[in-house]
Records
---
Amino acid sequence: MYVLEDGSAKPLHIALDAIRSDRSAPQMSERIAIDAGANVGSYTRLLAETYSRVYSFEPSPDTFACLERNVYEWGHYPKVRLYNAAVGDVRSYVSMGRSFGRLSITSRVKGSGSIPAIPLDSLGLQNVGFLKLDVEGFELKALIGATHLLRESRPYVFMEVKPAEEEVSDNPYAAENHLLALGYEMMLEAGINRLFRPGT
């Protein structure tokens, strides 16, 4: 397990290096990446330098404005499709609330509202090689909404898992257990992030 500072892009570097070293991994530059919970774009930037195309989701409107500006200024706009939306299990509308005491701009889904939440399967994406989830407790819903994608594309999944929160949950490690039931296996831990490899 790697011990890392919050807000660092180093966990993603570690995950991508691990995928590159995996002999069973398809060519990364020919596949699509999804950044769900993109925040201001530090992971989107790295994914755009690695994959052929990136679909980035950020539901908080003010954070999305920063993400959009950053992607444009970094020159990655042609490769990145941006969504001011959450990802979930069904089409719905949610609201966002601030999470205080965090080192980055962070919001959580707080209930019904005016921000769209969409299942990833509704986009009809194919050849997805990487799915990153940092969706502040919405991970299981996001995975359920990506059932077809996970079964057909078999992407690597890089997901935030917080043991302190999971262990007091009514359904601890539900998202991780859902992935394991789909034939995934944990490949590495990088701080509070875990990389899951699709089973053969």
---
Amino acid sequence: MALTASFMFVEVVGGLLSGSLALLADAAHMLTDALALALAWGAFRLGRKGADSLRSYGYRRAEVLAALVNGLVILALVGWIVWEAVSRILAPRPILGLPMLAVAATGLVVNLVVLRILHGGHDSLNLRAAALHVMGDLLGSVAAILGAIVILLTGWTPIDPLLSLVVALLIVFGAVRLLRSAFHILLEGAPEGFDEEQLREGLLAAVPGLEDVHHIHAWSLAGGHPLVTLHARIAPDADGDAVLVALKRELEQRFGLDHSVVQIETASCPDQPEHCA
């Protein structure tokens, strides 16, 4: 966050001196990056809080909310870049290629360092959101370097807003994927790769005494933290405790579901029949 915020001021000065939209757009994006990293940090801090009487699952969802906010901010930023780029294509402005190249090259190094710091958190939607911001900056730096080289060699300044549009297009695809993932989790969607029928068949084949599995619900608190609830009907002569232990072990070791709530039944399902299909 400190690296990003510090270099943002360098890019603002460089963009104003050189007249480059690519640098100013990247500076604006770095401002949102600093805010995004602060939001991500705050969400992680909040997410570490344990469960309490008001929130029995704790605060892990704060990371998903932070990712959602960051995705919406990215889309707003893309809209501003597109507006500025179109206006500069219609009315080109003079750009100083050498200062633009120097600042963009330094920005590339800074963004690579920040991306390296964030590396390894791809199971967290929150870190994916922060990394997406930084990846957008990295692409912006690359675009600014290419634009500066073209301007220095040919003097053709429209390359600057055109490359800004390309970067904006690349960023928006990542933002849409991020928002889709956040909305999926907030709507209690099934974890990635979850197959209800495969789970049912796998448990029936692996757990002795198990006759039926139904009323299966799976969701995630945050990326990488899946939960499942299900009803398990067992044979009349089966040991309920032994079946429960085997079910829990199978859910964790085979399906990666380490938090499960299992209702053992020895007769018909006590809930409504349509809920037990």
